[in-house]
Design a protein that fits this description.
The chain is of the alpha+beta class. The protein folds into 2 domains: 155 residues; 172 residues, Jelly Rolls. It has 5 helices and 13 strands. The strands form 2 sheets. The protein has a 7-stranded antiparallel beta sheet. The protein has a 6-stranded antiparallel beta sheet with strand order 3-12-5-6-7-8, with no helix packed on it. Helix 1 packs antiparallel against helix 2 and helix 1 runs parallel beside helix 4. The N and C termini lie far apart (73 Å). InterPro entries: B30.2/SPRY, B30.2/SPRY_sf, Butyrophylin_SPRY, ConA-like_dom_sf, E3_ubiq-ligase_TRIM/RNF, PRY, SPRY_dom. This is Probable E3 ubiquitin-protein ligase TRIML1 isoform X1.
Length: 348
């Protein structure tokens, strides 16, 4: 093949890649607008119901709207990240295309293009269909507000009722607990102790981080748990894949410090949401005695709430979970007696 023909072939290849990325960006933007439209329509429908019963339910309306808006923000954040990834790749292709057009005498071997495997991986990982609102939950929420009109005075807050309907039985697994944790006989709480417990060796046991996982795991549906953290000044809790590292000093073993887990951390008045080693400080000053964890596989969401006032704290939009999830708790060190209380799973 002549050098000029080779150059034209490279230019054609880059042009096709550019058009594919532009098409993906268009679809992502369209998906973003669709999410906004659906969220807006859902909020409007629910608000109309709340307006009819505003005298008794002003606080309940605030709770439901906050939850929906936070989940929308999580979805839009995820879409923004995918759009930024595609923009970055598109810019690289534009640079290569401009260089190819400007220097027709360059050596073909010096041109670097994205191979088809990487292209397929990019398009698969940024498929707009992976990002979606949890419409099943939203539809159920709207249905509950309709029912609430019929017996408004006798109902508990709608969002709380909906979430509690997703409550899942859970028991802690002693074989995963760090040797300085005592797991109760019922498997519903974990307490730190300075004494190293005489426990059998187990490959699934955490050996440096004070974590314990649940026996149960979940890979579909909606699930909700409440954790009692009253009297504590430090704790971590969240959800994780079984692949989270269990051994060694690396921070990967900590909840939320790697891609395998999602975590809410509290220390001395400060809340932080963690995932992938990135901390999200939360502007919250209230000390909650109960923390709720909501997981939606259809919506690809992990949401943390302050149960005391049903305050949404933070939502992660995962898109699609790649493995089953386990509940994970860390009661933290006793900090000279100031954090000696156990961390406990609440029963409904």
């Amino acid at each position: 093949m002549k050098e000029a023909d080779m150059e034209r072939s490279i230019q054609d290849h880059l042009t096709r890649q550019r058009e594919v990325i532009k098409c993906r960006l268009k679809k992502l933007t369209s998906k973003q607008n669709e999410i906004k439209s659906k969220s807006s329509a859902m909020r409007e429908s629910i608000v109309k119901k709340y307006e009819e019963m505003r005298k008794f339910l002003e606080e309940d309306c605030r709770i439901s709207m906050s939850l929906l808006e936070m989940e929308e923000m999580a979805v839009l954040r995820a879409l923004d990240k995918l759009i930024q990834t595609n923009h970055a790749i598109l810019c690289d292709i534009e640079v290569q295309l401009n260089e190819a057009m400007a220097d027709i005498h360059s050596q073909p071997g010096e041109m670097v293009t994205m191979n088809e495997e990487r292209m397929l991986e990019l398009l698969t990982g940024t498929d707009p269909g992976l990002i979606k609102l949890d419409e099943v939950k939203s539809d159920q929420l709207l249905g509950l507000t309709n029912n609430l009109l019929l017996f408004i005075r006798s109902q508990i807050p709608v969002a709380k009722r909906l979430l509690k309907s997703y409550s899942s039985e859970v028991v802690l697994d002693p074989s995963t607990a760090h040797p300085k944790l005592i797991v109760s006989s019922k498997g519903d709480c974990a307490t730190f102790t300075d004494e190293w417990q005489d426990v059998p060796e187990h490959e699934g046991r955490f050996d440096t981080t004070l974590n314990v996982l649940s026996i149960q795991c979940w890979n579909s549906g909606h699930h909700y748990w409440e954790i009692d953290v009253s009297g504590k000044i430090y704790w971590e809790l969240g959800l994780t894949y079984s692949s989270i590292p269990r051994r060694g000093q690396k921070e990967d073993c900590w909840l939320g410090r790697h891609a395998e887990s999602w975590c809410l951390e509290y220390f001395d008045g400060d809340y932080n949401a963690w995932h992938g080693g990135i901390s999200h400080p939360l502007p919250i000053s209230k000390c909650f005695s109960r923390i709720g964890i909501f997981c939606s596989f259809p919506g690809g969401l992990v949401t943390f709430l302050g149960v005391d006032s049903m305050t949404p704290l933070y939502s992660f939009c995962v898109g699609t979970f790649t493995d089953a999830l386990y509940l994970a708790l860390c009661p933290g060190h006793d900090l000279q007696g100031t954090n000696s209380k156990p961390i406990k799973i609440c029963q409904f």
